[in-house]
Design brief:
The chain has strands spanning about 5-10, 15-20, 25-30, 35-40, 50-55, 60, 65-70, 75-95, 100-105, 110-115, 125-130, 145-150, 155-160, 160-165. The radius of gyration is 16 Å and the shape is globular. The protein is mainly beta. A 7-stranded antiparallel beta sheet has the order 5-6-7-8-9-10-11, with no helix packed on it. A 4-stranded antiparallel beta sheet has the order 1-2-3-4, with no helix packed on it. It has a 3-stranded antiparallel beta sheet with strand order 12-13-14, with no helix packed on it.
Length: about 170
């Protein structure tokens, strides 16, 4: 048992990655047997709030204050973006090579990989927040869920502000 489980992802080789709050990531084989535990030393923090599978079995980990890319093939991890807020939920847009990150209290971050995900040092981050009095901004800074809508929009589910349909390019919400 892994304590507080926050997410589960299965990689191409059948391994199951189980992220936790305080115990890092448990890696299980396809039969559910424990292979290893990833924690401090491999990752900057063992409190994983969210986990999203990207291309080539890259795992994007939402920590307290940053996003880490973990390459499950090589075992390498790198901080992709420093957010200054808990990265509570994520959605990876494969067709546009964009990672969307929802935070508690600090809105949404759009992380674009300039040269594909091979070079995590080259990212462009755009921040979208709730702006009081601006009806086209997020309805709340507390983002609980992000999901695809169509080729130009994502759905943003918030705590206390309802559902937003956000334009991927302008950040305007309806």
């Amino acid at each position: 048992r892994a304590g507080s489980t926050t997410a589960m992802v299965q990689t191409k080789d059948g391994d199951i990655y189980v992220s936790t709050l305080g115990n890092g990531i448990y890696v299980l084989d396809d039969e559910g047997e424990l292979k290893t535990v990833l924690g401090r030393g491999i990752l900057p923090d063992d409190r994983i709030y969210s986990m999203e599978k990207g291309p080539d079995d890259i795992l994007f980990l939402g920590l307290s204050g940053n996003i880490v890319a973990y390459d499950s093939s090589s075992g390498r991890s790198v901080v992709v973006a420093e957010l200054g807020a808990i990265a509570y939920c994520q959605y990876y847009d494969v067709s546009n090579d964009i990672l969307w990150v929802g935070t508690i209290g600090n809105g949404v971050y759009k992380i674009e990989f300039a040269d594909g995900t091979a070079d995590f040092g080259k990212v462009r981050t755009t921040h979208f927040m709730h702006v009081k009095g601006n009806e086209l901004s997020l309805s709340s800074g507390n983002v609980m869920h992000i999901a695809p809508c169509d080729s130009s929009h994502v759905w943003i589910g918030t705590l206390g502000g309802g559902l937003n349909r956000m334009d991927m390019h302008t950040g305007e919400c309806s």
